[in-house]
Amino acid sequence: MSTADPQNWSEMDAGTSGNLDLKDVFKLLKKEIEAPSLQAIEPDTFQNIAASLGNLKGQGYEGIEAKVRDRMIELLGAAARLLLETRQTKIRVDQSLDYSKLTDEEKYMLDGKREYEGRMSEIVAATVKGRPKVLESISARMRSKQIVVRFLKTTEAFVGVDMSKYGPFQQEDVASLPFENARSIIEGGAAVEVHVE
């Protein structure tokens, strides 16, 4: 595409079947905001939005068309975020949650929230019931916990909190590090966590 032809801009929207364009996501968002309870959406909604965004980002437009594409990416991303946040607000307050209305991504977030709440309850209960051995066990698990990271930058060798030597690491190296060291390196921007199930 070399000219700013509005007739060709529709090609920018979704690009391939199954993807959701800005208009589709706006309709879902509007329906979700207007309804008092969680609405049923297609299970692959967020995957289709991500595919649309990936498709848009991969299109090599120039000039005004590139600006239009970039704005569409921005708006589609914002609408997707609002849709997810609106649904999460309803999920948090819904006492009789219908799991069939959740996407797998929403179930994943809910599972993480429940795991967090369970851990919080475990620590509070052990503390207020005077069970230091439970807390010692939790502390021991955290001290021995390892996180797998992928390095984004070359990193010098270091001694970990477990007194073992780690590194040196080159960009794209993958290593299992003590939790505390891994968090510091990740927060410093030298690595990202690799989720291993």
Question: Can you offer a commentary on this structure?
Answer:
The protein has 197 residues and is mainly alpha-helical. It folds into three domains: 6-102; 115-144, no CATH class; 145-197, Ribosomal Protein L9, domain 1 (3-Layer(aba) Sandwich), CATH 3.40.5. The protein contains seven helices and five strands, in the order ααααααββββαβ. The chain has helices spanning 10-13, 22-34, 45-57, 63-93, 104-128, 132-144, 179-187, and strands at 146-151, 158-159, 165-166, 174-178, 191-193. The strands form two sheets. The chain has a three-stranded antiparallel β-sheet. Strands 2-3 form a two-stranded antiparallel ribbon. Helix 2 packs parallel to helix 4 (63-93) and helix 3 (45-57) runs antiparallel to helix 4 (63-93). The longest helix is centred in the middle third of the chain and has 31 residues, at 63-93. Residues 1-16 have low confidence and may be disordered.
SSE blueprint:
Elements: H1 10-13, H2 22-34, H3 45-57, H4 63-93, H5 104-128, H6 132-144, E1 146-151, E2 158-159, E3 165-166, E4 174-178, H7 179-187, E5 191-193
Helix pairs in contact: 2-4, 3-4
Averaged pLDDT, please?
88
Number of H/I helices: 7
Q: Would you tell me the structural class of the helices and strands?
A: mainly alpha
Q: Report the end-to-end length measured between terminal Cα atoms.
A: 43 Å
